[in-house]
From TrEMBL:
<feature type="transmembrane region" description="Helical">
    <location>
        <begin position="367"/>
        <end position="397"/>
    </location>
</feature>
<feature type="transmembrane region" description="Helical">
    <location>
        <begin position="417"/>
        <end position="438"/>
    </location>
</feature>
<protein>
    <submittedName>
        <fullName>ABC transport system permease protein</fullName>
    </submittedName>
</protein>
<keyword id="KW-0472">Membrane</keyword>
<feature type="transmembrane region" description="Helical">
    <location>
        <begin position="235"/>
        <end position="261"/>
    </location>
</feature>
<feature type="transmembrane region" description="Helical">
    <location>
        <begin position="282"/>
        <end position="301"/>
    </location>
</feature>
<feature type="transmembrane region" description="Helical">
    <location>
        <begin position="99"/>
        <end position="129"/>
    </location>
</feature>
<feature type="transmembrane region" description="Helical">
    <location>
        <begin position="195"/>
        <end position="215"/>
    </location>
</feature>
<feature type="transmembrane region" description="Helical">
    <location>
        <begin position="54"/>
        <end position="78"/>
    </location>
</feature>
<keyword id="KW-0812">Transmembrane</keyword>
<feature type="transmembrane region" description="Helical">
    <location>
        <begin position="149"/>
        <end position="168"/>
    </location>
</feature>
<keyword id="KW-1133">Transmembrane helix</keyword>
<feature type="transmembrane region" description="Helical">
    <location>
        <begin position="12"/>
        <end position="34"/>
    </location>
</feature>
<feature type="transmembrane region" description="Helical">
    <location>
        <begin position="321"/>
        <end position="346"/>
    </location>
</feature>
Amino acid sequence: MIPLLRAELRHGWATWSGLAAVGAVAAVSFSAAIAMLEAGLAEGGEILDASVSFLSILLILNVPAGAIVIAAVSRLAVGLHRAVYARWQLAGVSPAQTSAVVISQLTGVGLLAGFVGFGAAVLIVPPFLHAVFVDDSSWWAEASIRPGALTGVIVVPLTTLVVLLGGFRGARSAGRTPALSALREPEAEAKRMRWWRWLLLVAVLLAAGFGGALAPFRAEERSTAISQFPLLPAYLTAIVATAAPVLSPLVLRAWTALIPARASATWHLARHQARYHLGRSTASVTPLFVGTALLGGLMTMSATTSTAMTSAGLPGNFDLGIMQVMLLVGGPVLLGATGAAVVLFMSNRTQASEQALLRASGASHGVVLGAAVCQAAIHVITATLLASIVVFGTALISAAALGRFVPAVPVLDIGAAAQLVALGLVLTVSATLVPAMARMREPLALRLAAE
């Protein structure tokens, strides 16, 4: 078992290192929240109460978002190796042993991500929190907040657990699926919303929808309603992410159908590949969707609230600064900027095989490279469209809830979200284009023989 585990980690290093990178970014965001609690525990009194309040908000905004992204990437990591696991079973490895190896891989990667993320947080979190509170007059502006032993004890297991839970279903599937079926199973098979997923969606709608997103309408005071607004993007993101197995393919198919396949050969190939590899497309879309939805939703909520309160002549500063926003959703934003690029890096081996077959069938270098760029753009645009559901929903709900107390209209602030989308597009295209260009210099016969 141990030699098999080591050999697979060496063979699929790109896939597992990509998952570890995503997990490490999530671990950094977890560390910032736990470090503030650790500082509060050391200080006690009102500082502890404030740190607990901070922790609850940060965990609600960061842990579900990180879990959604890591789960999508974990499922992809397992899915990309289904053929390998099938060959193991053909060679005599039992289904139980196959599942055990996959679970061991996920556990090892989760531990690595947790330790690397915590180590990075020790260097990153103190100057980051100082920049957040530098203009504040409270105790937090003077304190030196550094992740300590308590943060590490919580963050490393939490990151490992999230990675393991995200890929657990795929690990069980790798062991249960007959070997020959796994070898010939097309990746194009769309995800169906199984009965438990529908139950989960109903539960999320009840908890995050009626219990969370509509909570401001039950508030009897204006201040109470406003205090609940920052969580609106998180609630709506959770709802959309739960429905992603159905919603994401529908959105992708709907908007790509607006551009006919005859527009160009590159677009035809890119659209077909994005639709065929639904698992890879969903994993690419999820990180950028989550980051853009939370960032755009928070900025829109702040703009809507600030505009309404200023127009009503009420005192107070309701604008969120960019550092305050990064404290709230910095982890999901980083995952959004890098996640799609990491997913495409993880899928590099599969893409190499597809591009080699295109070249062998007569496609020019320009067509192959153009299709790669278009496919990256398809993922980014799909993520943006899904995020727009959350942003518009946040604007409408916050304006309607605030309108019970003062005149309010929805105000969109998508500048920061647009910058995140642009950065995600650049990184995603680079992660697709640079390896593809490097492969163009390889002899085609060698690439086909390798596959």
